[in-house]
# Entry
Amino acid sequence: MEIYGYDPTGFDGELVTIEVDIRRGIPGMDLVGLGDEAVRESKERVRAAIRNAGFCFPPDRILVNLAPASVRKIGSGFDLPIAAAVLAASGQLASSPDLRAIVIGELELSGRVRPVRGVLSAVAIALDHGISVSIVPDENLAEAASLGSRAYGVSSLGDCASLMDLMAVGRFPPVFDAVPRFNSQATTVEGDFSDLHGQAVLKRALEVAAAGAHNVFLFGPPGSGKTMAARRFQALLPDLKQEDSISVTRIHSLAGNLGANEGLISRPPFRSPHHSASLEGMIGGGRYIRPGEISLAHKGVLFLDEAAEFRLDVLQALREPLEEQRVSISRAQRSAWLPADFQLIMAANSCPCGNLGRAGGICVCSPQEILKYRKRMGGPLLDRIDIRIPVSPIGISELTGIPGESTAAMSSRVLAAVDRQERRYEGLPFSRNGRLPPALIGRFCSLDDDTALAFAKAVERLALSSRACHSILKIARTIADLEGEERLRKSHVLEAIQHRRYGDNDFFWDQT
Ligand SMILES: [Zn+2]
# Structure
């Protein structure tokens, strides 16, 4: 049997061939092929596990080679394939030269198999290489089985050996019923939009943002409902399509976030990192090039509450992924990439003390303090945000008024609009208005003469930049989609301007 292991670095990781050579000599095991500490320690675990599982550890010179030798291997997932390869090479397993399998798992000294991260990526890469048999820890079977390969779960080295003996004589046990199981992360939504009384402008902006995948910036004093609204946003988004569900689950599996027996993630993730987040925690990295918050938010929402409090390097590092929908990370000996196609929602107070813009509030900040505070989020980051909405606390009359529209009512319009966009952009590399590249805006957001004239007047009166114009046309496209219309009308454009009235520079706050 040809046995493969998996190195979980970055999104793709690396398929690794496990070769074992046993010859007479001073007993011992040499492991070559650039393993990290965890891989090198695997020698000791493998030796103990083989003995404790009732097999014989060969009293010879054993050479284990992890190929390709040029790639640095990390993690403890190589224990099980190395042990299986040693058993096969020493004739303790039935021979099956034509069989190829990917084998993943950490071994306890007792021979028990422990779950590892990155199993779904491992199975995906193996399938790409034509390897359809995978042997994984029991706890990882649900994710491994979700790609429709022949996936088997094992709980011990003994289990793994018996399974390989059966396969060698062509007796493949029936595979796990691969009905995707869904992950508990599906339900993290707090409350319903009907809890937000009043706030019609804010709710409409979030509905438009959800429909068109537009990035959003909410600004206003504390207690105005920014956080409450953002936390309800995820529920407006449609379920993930299967392809996205797989890539999202791969990322969360690589990060070690999937629980035992959890299958595909079906809902868009919602990530809300604290403002003290490190650059590595946000962007990804470390020795293992693990996914950061921007990748964990892939195909979902990254919510930065108190955005101005985030480290400047963290905010600046969001620019590349917002543009490319992916992130490249280089560490000492490896470089890798991770998907990071997320929708950004930023919320911030209008000034450091928070009182600016609050009715009756007295701001105690100096002009210099306010300028410094605003600059943090200005410029290139703000350029990538279509919708900017000032949020004010609501009055007592609104608080006691009739409840607002529910999440269900809003999301049904969003789903219909998403559907229209997917049909319109079929075959193109994007599927939502918020991702429309500038070169294609003219094609998909054309205006009739009357509307074009009204737009030109507004552009002049409000001194809108060309970037603002692009944003407005994309937002108008989404508003038309929400109304089920293919043609952009004047009312769509005029509403879109309201969502993007605030400029690209420091002054956008002063208009609240
Ligand atoms: Zn202030």
